[in-house]
Amino acid sequence: MVAFARLVFIGFIALTIVYICLSFYSRAVRRGKLEARWDSAGGPGDRDTFVRRGLERYDGSIRRKLILGVYVVPAILVALIIYFTNFA
User: By C-alpha distance, which of 18, 19, 12 is closest to 64?
Assistant: First the structure.
């Protein structure tokens, strides 16, 4: 039981690091796309305001929430491996 608790703890820490890195990367890519769109269209108004509003919309989007799959998918895979190893 102690080994399983250690696996869960270390796995959670590792997945949290992956989640944070993936979140920062995704936001940086989105910022780059917004800046490129503003530059190509000659954008209305201030560039910083355009990018800030775009990132606010991105924060509420489903794409942002899909990154939480970093926690769900590995947990399901580990549970399936444990189940099939012990009971199937």
Answer: 19
> How high is the mean pLDDT of the chain?
91
- 3-state DSSP assignment of residue 60: coil
Specify whether the CB–CB gap between 70 and 14 falls below 8 A.
no
Could you tell me the pTM of the whole model? 0.82
Reduced to 3 states (helix: H, G, I; strand: E, B; else coil), residue 5 is: helix
Which residue type, as a one-letter code, is found at position 5?
Answer: A
Per-domain residue ranges of the chain: 2-87
Nearest to 75 by CA among 14, 3, 1: 14
What secondary structure letter does DSSP report for 44? S
Position 67, amino acid: I
CB 50 within 8 A of CB 34: yes
